[in-house]
Each structure stands twice: as structure tokens, then as C-alpha cells.
Design a protein that fits this description.
This protein is mainly α and about 100 residues long. The protein is about 45% helix and about 5% strand. It has a two-stranded antiparallel ribbon with strand order 1-2. The radius of gyration is 14 Å and the shape is globular. Helix 1 packs antiparallel against helix 2 and helix 3 runs antiparallel to helix 4. The two termini are about 20 Å apart.
């Protein structure tokens, strides 16, 4: 199991928070985008697991624990989606981030 924190906002190329639309002050949150992409993607061999992972990510308030097969599934769906590299790249970086050991 690996601890992953997807409850962060996407950043633009200047490092500023991306917003949900031009009129809104709502940040574009990574956990909401990942969960929605995962839930509307073509069903895998285990659609119930896919849905459960989506709900876990969507409802996260902080970091969550995912096993390697969950992370691999998310990465596969993200890579096969039509997301821009700006968005998909940030997601993959978070999923690939090594856990920092607590001192």
C-alpha cells in the first residue's frame, strides 16, 4: 500500500492554481478530476473495483492508501484518456511520487 495525496489543485505553467472556469474562484482539484475520469472510463475486468476506487478518491479529504494495482489502473486510464499533458502529467507525477520516510 502506498499513501497518495490527490487532494491538491492543478497548477498552470506559471505555478498558479487552475480554476474550474474563468468566472469561478473554485480550484480544479486533482481528486475530483481523477475520480470522474476513472468513473466514466471504459469498464475494466472489475468495474466494481474501478467504481470503489473512484469513490475513495472523490471523497478523500487528505491522503489515501492505494495498492500498486490500483495505482497501475489509474495510470492506465489517465494515459488512455484525452487529458492534456498539463493535467495528465501532474496526476502521473503524484502517483509516481515516492513516499517520504517520517523521521
Amino acid at each position: 500500500m502506498k499513501k497518495i495525496n490527490l487532494t491538491t489543485s492543478f497548477k498552470d505553467l506559471e505555478g498558479k492554481d487552475m480554476l474550474t472556469d474563468r468566472k469561478s474562484k473554485d480550484k480544479m482539484m486533482m481528486n475530483k478530476i481523477v475520480a470522474n475520469i476513472l468513473s466514466i472510463a471504459k469498464a475494466t475486468k472489475d468495474p466494481v473495483r474501478q467504481l470503489d476506487i473512484s469513490l475513495k478518491i472523490y471523497n478523500a479529504k487528505k491522503e489515501i492508501e492505494l495498492d500498486d494495482s490500483d495505482i497501475d489502473l489509474i495510470k492506465k486510464v489517465i494515459q488512455e484518456s484525452n487529458l492534456s499533458s498539463l493535467i495528465a502529467g501532474q496526476i502521473i507525477k503524484v502517483l509516481d511520487k515516492k513516499e517520504e520516510k517520517k523521521k
